[in-house]
Every structure is written in C-alpha cells, then in structure tokens.
Predict the 3D structure of the following.
Amino acid sequence: AYVIYTSGSTGEPKGVAVEHRQLAAYVAGVGERLELARYRRFALVSTPAADLGHTVLYPALAQGGLLYAVPPEVATDAEAFARFLAEEPVEVVKIVPSHLRALVAGVGAAGAGAGAVLPRGLLVVGGEATGVAEARAWQQAAPGCRIANHYGPTETTVGVTACPLWQGVALTEAGSLPLGEPQPQAAIWVLDGSMSPVAPGVAGELYVGGEAVARGYLGRPAATAERFRPNPFDGPGERLYATGDRGRWRGDGQLELLGRVDDQVKIRGFRVEPGEVAARLLGHEAVREAAVLARPGRSGEPELVAWVVVEPEGAPPERAPLDPATLRAWLSARLPEAMVPARWVFLPRLPLTPNGKLDRRALPEPEEVRGGEGEAPRPGLEEWVAGVFRDLLGVAEVGRES
C-alpha cells in the first residue's frame, strides 16, 4: 500500500512496507474503537510523509467522508488554524501533543481560548505522551469534543491501542494518559528479556502481533529479522514486532507507556527511565511541556537534564513562578532522588520536527539553564563542604543546591 521511512533518529532511515491488508485492518479497527462512523468531516494537519495523519486520511476516504488537507502554513499558524476551524465544521483532528500545545499557546497569546483550535467532535492525540492535566484543560475548553489517546509504531500500521477518555478510563493526575487497550487488529504482549510475559504492574518491552504487523523494512532483511520476530504464542508464520518501548499493564487492562528501552540509563548505580520522569513532570499544574534526557555531566558520568515549558505569562496569580529549586523539590516528593534531574532548561516551547514530534537534536545544551546551578555556598562551613564535594566528584563548581 505504501512505504514510509522512519525518522532515522537511531541510525539510517528504514522504509517500512505496509500492505493493503494491514491498512484495511487498521481502518476497521480504529474505526470501531474510536466510533469514527459517527463523523463526516476530517482534517489532515500533519505531513502525509508520516503515518500520524492516516488516522483521519484513510477512514475519511473509506467511509465517504469529507477530508480537509490543511496546508502547512495554516496548520502551524495558531490564528490561521483558528480561523479555518471557525469557517469549516471540522469534526475530527489527529495531532501530536507538541503541535497542539503550540497552537493553544498561539491563540492564548492572541486572546482566544484553547477551544478555538479544537475540533467539534473528536480530538485524537498520538506520537508523544500527553499529560492528564492538559487533556482535562482541553476538554474544559471544548466540552463537546471527545478526546482519545492513540499509540502505535509505524511498523505496526499507524496505531494498535486507543484510549477513549469518554469511556470512563481511570486517570492519575500526576502522569500522562494511558495508551488504552489493544484495537481489534492487534495483540499486545509485555515481555521480559527472556520473551516471557510479565505480571500486571511489572514493566517490560511492548511487542505487537496480529494483523497490524507490517511486511518489514524494504530491501533490508537483516533489519527486518532483528525487529520482526517469530511469535512464540501463536501459530507458525505469525510474527511479533519488538517496539523498543517499555510499558506495563494496569489492573484495569489499560496499557501504560514508561519510555524507551534504549533510553534507560544508570544514574549513580540506579537504572532510570527518563520518559517516566518527563511523564511525572507533566503532572505539575504549571508544566505545559517536558522532555528529560541523559547528558554527560562535568565528571563525565550521565546525569538527567529536564527541558520544560511552563505556563505562559498571564497564568493565575496563585501559581508561583517556577524555578529549578521549586520543580526539584516537587519531584523529590514523588520520585527517588536518582530520578530527579540535576540540571534544568526553561524554554518558551520545545523544538519540533517537521512531523510535529520532539526534535531531540535541537534541544539546547544544559549550559543554557536560566538561573545557573543555584546559589554559591556561603562562607565558612558551607564553602568547606563544597570544596570536599568538588575534590571527590571532580567538578569545577558546587552550588548550595547542586
């Protein structure tokens, strides 16, 4: 049916070959889970070079709906997009959370509410984690708009799980939206390193089977064999795709995403998942966007760096201005010390790729942190203790809060 190339963030881009039968199974599965048959007007706001927009593209065409192909200059301009939605009765939009946040911030700066850039019927978010608090804010801004979280790698044909919030899904305020349950065309396993299923609540790697699994990587049999593996739980010829994502089953059957397997790092001997830290940061009422990655510290050892976007100017006065010390203290009350970022970068917005996802390569280096590394130690005992730490850790400076 089509070949879509991966972003190449972990190596040379690979062309994912998706067959007609997998695409047809996806259209039927997502249509059933998100009740798409009730809608007629869909808007494509992302590039067709990625499969994010296939959630609206193919269902709209398959059921005889009206598809608006929104030009990039409109889809990325908050005021222009708000005017477009005011003129056209669009019911369904699929969008990356970072893209939507930028639109919401743009109309907010122009004096309009978030509802100006939300569709009339169904908002589907995917491609990145979405904070529960921001999802609730979007729902309040457009009470008539349903919200669903959608997950799936390109290699498993657009999406394999969906979490329709209107179906009474339990949400934890200090976290991100769950991935939901498998769609009819897919089966999901959470497996340990020996390919054995783990119990609910235990983290493991996510594997996808069923009709969703694509043919493989075009012209690259070795890369295909590495990620598309024989399925030990089904019949001969069935395959599992190893997503590289970490997750766990909740007790209510909802799937939670915990980050990437290859993003795990050891911080002072503790294994840490940066994606889990970013998801927890989104639980803070004043944090609008967050990204957490490991970077080499002054001693050469990895340390966590957080890039955060806080509520813009004009936020309610009861929300005190955020700084590294405030966020560090807030996280320390909720996470082990090894999971608390050592350095912080505050940005007006996170950088995005043309597909609307986080552009990790464009994140500024932590030396650009506003406010530095905290207050200098006071003369006397504090200065003496700081000198001991400098010698032991091999670092140039130690602040009061380092």
In short: The first helix runs from residue 20 to 34. The two ends are 54 Å apart (CA to CA).
